[in-house]
Design goal:
Cytochrome Bc1 Complex, Chain D, domain 2, mainly alpha, two-stranded antiparallel ribbon, 4 strands, 27 helices, 3 domains
Length: 543
């Protein structure tokens, strides 16, 4: 207790601008460069609120009540409750702008409050101050700004980046991941390979904080990991690697003093003590490269424009000494990958859709294969969708692109199911009991449907997992397997799709077997569609 109290007093005496030197330090692949909410979300979680969530909520809490996940690590000097009308109402707008721009020490308040004047432009500082003011503007107004459950569900969809791979009506792609432009300079090969194989959370508190965005698990093989890591490390470099010599001979002793002086443990864990706002600094030596780390500490935005760490004016010498302490020297030489390995990694990088999240989200960078989710609430049974989101499995098993595992909690999976059921339901279809499976169909109708399935050669386009396909061009017309149709598809949707495939998926290669322009193509078309539906509803899921 005495040592902790002494450390707290030391942090109180130092320059407040540097107290959070390493906040959000070395963010890694799990951190999105920009936090974005649903277009329909309320003012408190969009526009000005984004800055608050990005920079302030880790200490002040998402609602500004001073209860952020890092608050407990700040000891007796707790973050201010920004919803306190009596106290906050006494502060002028100029005061709020000054403390945000210059830090707590500038107004004789908490030294744990950092300065953002070198990080944000004037308009950003003003926007942040305006949002802080709105948090205590009155009980009615505060409640009005709180997101509804529908808005929270929509934010989950946006921050997971669902629209970056899938078309979802008019929902636009949003950037949810950092740039990989300097990944080759930043990461050590063993760590990067292990992370790509099995991604894990880097920041204990989540991203800035508690965002839904995360690096998903793509279930890639050892060979794919090797090639993807080789591509990232070999090709995505800036090319200015000539700074290694300035680190030779350093032992990190001064870096340890700087780490204590700057109060880095008020945000990070180091030497088995500290906080949860940023990554564990004990693990940085296995993840990051020495030269990149020093440049980042010195000027975060020079290595990553979207870096959330404030630029606080650290000298090159101090940045060097802190980097040496955290990373030390890595004498192990890495073997140079072959051009063939790098080429395979680039192909995998593109087919997995990494560009869609990491290099500026737009519809043109969506990977080939992910289906249109616009009418997902009409198509899929909620129980199946929930299970699939929790544990994805291939439906188009021939594709290199694949549905990743986001390691969703039960609450998050339920929110996604609600979102697609509530907002993406076809407005032309009236609500009904189609969320539930129909009763077991007549066996005779199932047999008739089986005969029709064979007659129309449905399995040519809807294959089941088996021997690998011989040529890539053979897969262009393929559609998902029906192996799990009984649990996956809604019976009413199957009928609507068979009746008019183009009205549901414009441009689909599914033929019009039964109707064309509203006119029947076969006798007894409705009965045949019902039989085919009943056959599909009889198929047992593959175990």
């Amino acid at each position: 207790m005495g040592a902790e109290r002494k450390g707290t007093e030391m942090m109180r005496r130092v320059n407040p601008i540097l107290l959070v030197l390493l906040i959000f330090f070395m963010g890694g692949l799990t951190a999105p460069s920009v936090l974005l909410a649903s277009e329909s979300a309320s003012k408190s979680i969009t526009e000005t609120g984004l800055l608050f969530r990005r920079y302030c909520a880790v200490c002040h809490g998402l609602e500004g009540r001073g209860d952020g996940p890092n608050a407990a690590a700040l000891g007796e000097t707790q973050p201010r409750d920004l919803t306190d009308q009596k106290y906050m109402g006494k502060l002028s707008d100029a005061h709020l702008l000054k403390v945000i721009s210059e830090g707590g020490r500038a107004v004789d308040r908490s030294p744990f409050m950092p300065s953002f004047g070198r990080t944000l432009p004037l308009e950003g500082l003003r926007a942040l101050a305006a949002h802080v003011r709105s948090l205590h503007a009155g009980e009615g107004q505060a409640k009005k700004g709180e997101p509804t459950p529908e808005e929270v569900d929509a934010r989950l969809v946006v921050e997971l980046g669902c629209a970056n791979c899938h078309r979802i009506a008019d929902l636009a792609p949003r950037p949810v991941a950092p740039s990989l432009a300097h990944a080759g300079e930043k990461f050590q090969a063993p760590w990067l390979g292990a992370f790509l194989k099995d991604p894990f959370r880097i920041r204990p508190a989540g991203y800035v904080p508690l965002s839904y965005s995360r690096m998903p698990k793509f279930r890639i093989s050892h060979e794919e990991v090797e090639s993807l890591a080789a591509y990232l490390l070999q090709r995505l470099q800036r090319g200015d690697q000539g700074k290694t010599q300035r680190f030779v001979g350093k032992n990190g002793e001064k870096g340890h003093q700087l780490l204590l002086q700057y109060g880095c443990r008020s945000c990070h864990n180091y030497d088995e003590s500290g906080a949860v706002a940023g990554p564990d600094l004990e693990k940085a030596k296995d993840r990051l490269r020495l030269e990149w780390t020093a440049r980042f500490i010195e000027d975060p935005q020079s290595t990553d424009r979207g870096a959330a760490m404030p630029k606080v004016g650290v000298s090159p010498a101090d940045a060097r000494d802190i980097a040496v302490l955290l990373i030390k020297e890595n004498s192990q030489r890495e073997s140079k990958p072959t051009p063939e390995l790098v080429q395979r990694g680039q192909a995998l990088f593109e087919s997995l859709g990494c560009l869609a999240c990491h290099e500026g989200a737009d519809a043109a960078k969506r990977p080939e294969g992910p289906p249109d989710l616009t009418h997902l609430g009409d198509k899929l049974q909620p129980a199946w969708l929930r299970g699939f989101l929790k544990e994805p499995r291939p439906l188009r098993f021939w594709l290199k692109a694949r549905m990743p595992d986001f390691r969703l909690s039960d609450k998050e999976a339920d929110a996604l199911v609600r979102y697609f059921a509530r907002y993406r339901k076809d407005p032309k279809i009236k609500s009904g009991p189609s969320d539930e499976r129909v009763m077991a169909p007549d066996p005779a109708n199932v047999e008739r449907g089986r005969a029709l399935f064979d007659l129309y050669e449905c399995s040519k386009c809807h294959p089941s997992p088996g021997p690998s396909l011989q040529a890539e061009e053979e897969t262009t017309a393929l559609a998902p397997s029906f192996q799990d149709a009984a649990r996956r598809l809604k019976p009413d949707w199957v009928l609507r799709f068979l009746r008019d495939p183009q009205s549901i998926y414009p441009g689909t290669k599914m033929p019009d077997f039964f109707y064309s322009a509203g006119e029947p193509l076969e006798e007894d078309a409705e009965a045949k569609m019902a039989a085919l539906r009943d056959y599909l509803m009889s198929l047992s899921p593959r175990r």
